[in-house]
């Protein structure tokens, strides 16, 4: 897909980095596996939470080692992602002056590799005792990262999840909930409407019709909803469980208020 510069033993320099994929790290769009909000996601990578955000370029060096190159050229990375999403080729080549950091490892799972070089592996430890390599979340255990990834999947595959729930199903009501965990989630979400949370804690994205898809996170919980429909809640305390919240008389107003304060893609 392109290349970016790296140097001897994987440090920034003249040796090429073979680009495999890239993602955005901005208040409106970031890998939620890294944190509940934009500042947390930045902190997981040792980055300052600048409002403009970053682009994360994942690739291999000539020895096959995994590297994540952080660039301040967000527009370039956004253009590359949009082009790849359309099924077209784009040679993503970074300018040295835009590179903010070069981090060992990948924070996300990447299913492809560069042909003709060694298989992806962690680079050798730096002589200066650099940070341990980034690694994807363990799919075999349940925790905050897996809970957020589950909510992302529901948002991405909303129609598939929604069709599993009929009007005859038992919802967790949005008013007086018998489920203590869901009650806590909705109370904390209402708190966001009174005291705005950190950037990216609530995000709004396009949905069919006049609706929006909402993603909200908090300590131990994730919520995904359509502003014209129901919501789903995932909890750290309920491994793998997806709790549908009925629309009822209270949920529409909450979702509307969250959408008003949510960060939206530019």
From TrEMBL:
Q: Name the chain's protein.
A: Integral membrane protein
Q: Which species is this UniProt entry from?
A: Streptomyces palmae
Specify residue ranges for compositional bias: Pro residues.
117-126
Stretches for region Disordered: 117-140
């Amino acid at each position: 897909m392109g290349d970016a510069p790296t140097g001897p033993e994987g440090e920034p320099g003249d040796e090429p980095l073979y680009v495999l994929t890239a993602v955005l790290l901005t208040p409106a769009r970031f890998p939620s596996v890294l944190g509940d909000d934009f500042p947390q996601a930045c902190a997981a990578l040792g980055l300052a939470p600048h409002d403009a955000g970053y682009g994360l370029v994942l690739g291999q060096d000539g020895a096959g080692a995994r590297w994540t190159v952080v660039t301040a050229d967000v527009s370039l990375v956004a253009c590359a992602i949009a082009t790849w999403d359309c099924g077209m080729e784009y040679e993503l080549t970074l300018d040295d002056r835009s590179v903010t950091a070069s981090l060992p490892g990948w924070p996300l799972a990447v299913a492809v590799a560069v042909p003709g070089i060694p298989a992806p592996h962690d680079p050798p430890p730096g002589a200066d005792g650099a940070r341990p390599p980034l690694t994807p979340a363990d799919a075999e255990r349940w925790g905050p990262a897996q809970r957020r990834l589950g909510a992302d999947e529901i948002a991405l595959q909303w129609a598939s999840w929604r069709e599993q729930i009929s009007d005859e199903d038992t919802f967790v009501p949005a008013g007086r909930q018998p489920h203590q965990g869901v009650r806590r989630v909705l109370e904390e979400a209402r708190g966001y409407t009174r005291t705005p949370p950190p950037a990216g804690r609530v995000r709004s994205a396009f949905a069919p019709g006049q609706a929006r898809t909402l993603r909200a996170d908090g300590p131990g919980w994730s919520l995904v909803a359509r502003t014209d429909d129901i919501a789903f809640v995932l909890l750290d305390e309920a491994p793998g469980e997806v709790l549908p919240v009925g629309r009822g008389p209270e949920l529409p107003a909450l979702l509307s208020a969250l959408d008003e304060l949510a960060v939206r893609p530019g």
